[in-house]
Amino acid sequence: xxxxxxxxxxxxxxxxxxxxxxxxxxxxxxxxxxxxxxxxxxxxxxxxxxxxxxxxxxxxxxxxxxxxxxxxxxxxxxxxxxxxxxxxxxxxxxxxxxxxxxxxxxxxxxxxxxxxxxxxxxxxxxxxxxxxx
Length: 133
Description:
With about 130 residues, the chain is mostly helical. It has one domain (about 5-130). It has 3 helices and no strands. The chain has helices at about 5-70, 75-105, 110-130. The model has no long low-confidence stretch (mean pLDDT about 90).
């Protein structure tokens, strides 16, 4: 390296830096493609499950509130509205369950248990709403 002229040393340094920059660019592009796949997998799976789970949770709360309103009120208009709200909430929950089942990446027994509990809850809810009305 001592015997090489300064011009050649600068060219060699420039070529090495240029090669490192091209290698870094190629690696960055490869990482971006990998990151893109990971984001797509997240969006297609856990992101949709989280959204559906939030809808199911809020529908459960709405249903619970509607059942309490049905029990607590004696006004037929309020009772009828509360019964309709409870039924609408149950429909929303039933609509969101297939989305959760399709995209859930965890233990499928959790979804099976939820569906079993919903099946068990439906006749009880209907009985309470019938008695309250």
